[in-house]
Fold each of these.
Amino acid sequence: MFIPATAFGANDRVLTGHIGVGGMGRGNLGKFLDNAVAVCDVDSKHAENAAKIVLDKKGREVEIFGDYRKLLDRKDIDAVVVSTPDHWHAITTIHACQAGKDVYCEKPLSLTIAEGRKMVEAARANKRIVQTGSMQRSSDNFRRACELVRNGYIGKVHTVHVGLANANDPGKLPADSEAPANLNYDFWLGPAKVRPYNEKRVHYNFRFWWDYSGGQMTNWGAHHIDIAHWGLGKDDSGPLSVHAEQVAYHPEMAHEVPEACRITYDYGDGVKMIVGQGQKDIKMGTRFIGDKGEIYVNRGVFQPSSEEIGAIKLKDSDIHLIDSNNHHQNFLKCMETRELPICDVEVGHRTATACHLGNISCRLQRKIEWDPVAEKINGDDEAAEMTHRAHRAPYVLG
């Protein structure tokens, strides 16, 4: 039982452990029900509910952990699925790679740019497959849109619109209180700074606070900016400058992240990407604008500017992108073949980097210059400091 299942060949069941089994974690667990043998969460109710899902649907018990490091100690587990809040993605993913596990990590890949690069380095150094959960790449409509753009069927692209969702306001903060007995709150905080427990800052609401996430920029930007990069062929690159304007916050600061913004990304090749939240001219999704046509794509939507563009069939000589119709199965397949998955850790890092740069510009409300080769901000020490963050001991990378 202590030999990884993958050692026996492609026909043997891959065994997965699941770190973070709250809302998104339960969703991911549902995609790996045939594989799951262990669940881990700092909230014991989440862990127990997840274990019950496997028992009810598959008639199989799984081991329950409150500390992900003990889950990683199980030698029979081949891969882990990380669905924690964003501030835990890097540490758990890197430790999993070092433990010899492949990783499916939810988007956004990282909390900071520096963390993302360390995650890539850990995956490469330990020869691990790491899939980022930006699952729109595994949908036909997004792939088709990007293939048409990449092959020049809408002409030279000069502008891309990326629309983000509005902030779903968690509501007025109640008074701080004691954490419930089922939640190991110190472990939940992990590498983040210590602050009193508040029910509107934990679990799903983590997304609205800088200590743990980056708002809708990292939530939806990790999807729609990812598609923009795929269509533009920017998976190993990034913008040269980022300029946030029209930035607005909650008037009573019920949360920290922006409620509206308009951010211009300049890629230095005549292409500008404009990311909008709360902008009337930019709707949710990704819109590629070329000198011969347009394509707008969103979940369940493929909308070319003409019937002719929509009817185009790729030639054999055209660029054909990876064709995946199941993001989780693509991960399992790549565990078998050891080929890079459709949203490899490097891809996830570059997308998350664009999101983080947008947030840095929003917070400082000024233009920043970015070197995508050296991966550093030039000429702005304050902005450069925001590309990394110290981890609180003992929750540090080792």
Amino acid sequence: MTTFLLVIIYLAFISLGLPDSLLGVAWPVMQSDYGAPLETAGLLFMTIAGGTIISSLASGKILKRFGTGNITFVSCLMTAGALLGFHFAPSVVWLIVCAIPLGLGAGSVDAGLNDYVATHYKAHHMSWLHCFWGVGATFGPIIMAQFISEQHSWRNGYLAISGIQFTLTVILLFTLPLWNRVKKNSNITLHEEPEDSKGVFDNEDVKHVKPLQIKGVKLALISFLFYCGVESTVGLWGSSFLVNVKELPVAVAAQWVSLYYAGITIGRFITGFITFKMSNRTLIRMGQTIALTGATLLFLPLHSTFSLVGFIMVGLGLAPIFPCMLHETPTRFGKKHSQTIMGYQMAVAYTGSTFMPPLLGFIASHSTIGIFPFCIVVFVAAMLLSSEKLNTLLTKKDVLKRKDTSSTAF
């Protein structure tokens, strides 16, 4: 029963990933149909992410009152309805209206499922969970590219994705009783204690400190900010960069962006196995290094083929970072504060998704989309720097903690 519940959670994350990559690959065609300026995509993206921030901040109370299963079902239903609205939207105003439930539908379920898996399962489950998000994010642009190339219709692409979402909604509806049965069955043990779940800062003094006052928390939040800034910016503006700078056809650009999401997906699937041999900290560092290398390939004035390699490398590099940082939260800061800090991390992550892509769109509309690769390099470098500073701080605190323990032992 618990295995089947995990499958349902994976399906829910597919539904979260499907809409995330659609706007970026469809926007070059949507922009011409509506006669809208380039930065309008940033406004739509900001509206979606803003709704996600609001619902994620309210997720604690909502999840306690209605339960994770019910919220997952309602969120998927809202997303399906919003995507159907995109199909029928006669103007940009209606796109903005539909973007609101699209964002609200993602926040609570994302925060709830992430916290559930981080608390109850080991690191490989978190990586595979986000791998299934990548499955949705990969197939989204593939489906959209198919409709754009064959039918010249982005609207039918949204209609098809909406149909898939409604199908997942029906599955979630019929499996709602499963959540309650698993919860009530005391003989079933869902949770596995996270490895090294007692954090470096888990001591009597820190237990009385507010989460944001714990050393290292702000550095972790900066890492989440720039991670989501990179991931969402590449997804939203990658296609426009390839079309306007590398002069690729829209359908080809959409397929290349889908390979970026495929890199995230495949990377997270592989990461799930690597977590048995490597620590979260090592995987985070490796991923950031690979992503920085891929971003550098995009930045250098090379043939467009290197851009494809760069997109894939950025995707592969980003793959382990987010799930490993989430799963590392109890280890970094202790179980007592992990739930609160997890909420802060998700809120800051969505803030990066909300403001960084529109900021790039605003600057690009007044200059050129050619600044895209430079911004990606800066974002990845900032994420790497903050993460390494946090690692240094954690290492120092760990050494001091071990010294204190050894001195009291004698």
Amino acid sequence: MGIGDKPKFDIYIILIYLALLLIGWLTIYSAAQVSQYNGILDMDQLYGKQILWIGLAIVIITFILAMDVKFFERFGSIIYIISLLSLLGLFVFGKELNGAKSWYSLGSMTLQPSEFAKAATALAVAKFLSGINISLKNTRDLLLVGLIIALPALFIIPQPDPGSALVYGAFFFALHREGLSLWYLSLVLVAIGLFLGTLVLGTWWIALIVLIAMSVIYMLSRKRRHKKRLPKPRIVLFLIISGICVLYSLSTNYIFNNLLEDRHRNRIDIVLGRVEDNQGVGYNINQSVIAVGSGGLTGKGLLEGTQTQGGFVPEQETDFIFSAIGEEWGFIGASLVIILFMSLCYRLVIMAERQKNQFARIYGYSVAGIFFIHFFVNIGMVLGLLPTVGIPLPFMSYGGSGLWGFTILLFIFVKLDGHRMSYEH
């Protein structure tokens, strides 16, 4: 693309975006349990408000695509700082809803800054890593980018909103693409596995034996490949890691019983099968699974789902919207939504790889990671495979903040990609 040429925005991403918006709105309309139809712009109904949020999202898209492409890189750090201040301001000026102080009240509207913080953090990470002489092999640089990612998450957790904080693990995809070793992800997965294994088995030493066995297998495989004995420093490191694992495993019950809230402990217990509570904390998950299972192959039809129309699934318009799709659209409809999200993530990775500019590539991988985590965790939660952590399904769950936040996140990258042939440092 030469200077003055028109940008070429990726049509596939735009079509996927519009398809998800349409399916989401139809599902919100169905989940509203309308007794009297007063038009799609009825502001007393959630589907009417969502039309308004969608209209404003189109305005946001127009504004983003009309901006100077270099604006986002130049002011990425400033946008990130403003985002952090908006998260901190919640502790003083925030409005509490459903036990969480995560919103600003703007008259009859509410705004959730954590939904916009993801795009701001992605810009900041891309800005930092694309700087001159920045390398993830440098401990200082690694710690700094880790701090950039951790700060918004640390501000979000006390609201409390651990689900939104969980999403920041998505930045590993971008960091790995830029050279971060898979060992860091392995350590996180081992920590999670050891934690859950200790809870499920009820004793720390069985989980530890499994961990040590896996470590020994790994070391023996490396010894066989290199045809020599493992160096003493590697053996010492293994012993140190084993000791840390023992202490970590011993502290599992304390962490679980004292640092997590009752609702989070109960949800984890239900998913792990340690308790059964279909009428209490587990009610949402149980009703959601019933709704999805009752849809069969082709579903019961729009406005025909008994679970959906009867209002048996709480928060179905937001976090549990996929259960309405499963019931009324069936396996075919649910599979279509999953394919759309997988196509979205796959296309984003392709777009990220074709970037000539490092800032755009890092931002693209961050966007792909964020959408994947949201899609994976939300659907896993609705199907009862993961604990209920309260994160929305992008472009489909009801709400202006979520829709606008995801739209901004996506279309900044659409803008960067559209100018990829001419966009340089």
Amino acid sequence: MRRGIVATAVAASLALAASACGGSGGDSTDGPVTITWWDTSNATNEAPTYKALVKDFEKANPDIKVKYVNVPFDQAQNKFDTAAGASGAPDVLRAEVGWTPAFAQKGYLAPLDDTEALEEKDAFHPNLIKQAEYDGKTYGVPFVTDTLALVYNKALFEKAGISEAPKTWDDLKADAATIKSKTGVDGYWGSTAAYYAQPFLYGEGTDTVDAENKKITITSPEAKKGLTTWQGLFDGPGLHKADTTADAYAHIQDAFVNGKVAAIIQGPWEITNFYTGSAFKDKNNLGIATVPAGSTGEAGAPTGGHNLSIYAGSDEAHQEASATFVKFMTSAETQAQIALKNSTLPTRDDAYTDEVKTDPGIAGFQTVLPAAQPRPELPEYSSLWGPMDQELPKIASGAEPLDKGLATLDTAFADLLPDFAK
């Protein structure tokens, strides 16, 4: 690996002793280097694949040992934040893409430009690299990716005489009514969660904020128009009413996989679960299309996923070993193996082999990735979804007018982003 990671670490206070992180202590001078990897994947469905790959890596690199630790995803961000601040973080972290700029801003992550970890940078989709960047440097290597798509039941669409997926939200509304009248099944069931509302903003050429110009845009005419469209998809023929219960996600998913609703907006993390339902015993009945477009003609959904990042507080030997490990885990061959085992989406096109694309879910979601929109380089961006998750269910259920909800969000965003103009 090329030198330079430690030299560019942000804070001198983070240039810690070898005992600073879980895998950085106790190595003999002539023995293998031991690095610690915090994996934040599902411990039951995904982690076994990663554990097996760790063994493969160690066989190929006998001078490096990997201490594998599975950390629950919902705890990992706070755990890493605490550990890095107290000089005890792991050498490698599987970080949700929204965490990367936030941890980079704090100086907890090592820049990976011109290191072994990013030797194949051009193989990754530029949008995925973009959201691993902060202040002109790259702090993560794209590991798995995702986005949202319109997933639909081909058989129900065909029964209703509909031959293709809707291209616009108006088309979706019309199709839902037709499906209801022809099959008796609701055509569409929308989510009240903030993440699932993003495509409606993108469809009007806007977002919750304009990060480049440091402006809050949630009350802009464009945002209001997009969320008016979103609100309108909870009431009408073939449109399921808003579910604001704590189990809404499970209710929507269960209805779709068992043929009780024809279409929903969902991500590739549910690919394997789609096939467990009665509606998709034939996997080819699963239709996947880009989310419908708004009035601007634009269609897109947020880019999600995870990067592999390296702790800035590890010593140089451990950072170099970590970079070797990250390169292995993000190689085309490894990514293809992960996709085949876990049904997750690779972050590089050369990992979409013919064998990988035999899964119609993976092949389908690959086609919608070009429309995925990267998150802006704003450490607080993902935090904006918290207030939205509080307000959007009220709006969707009719308990609160849209204008009032947006005004509440405007105030909440201003508290999170005091330097942004309204």
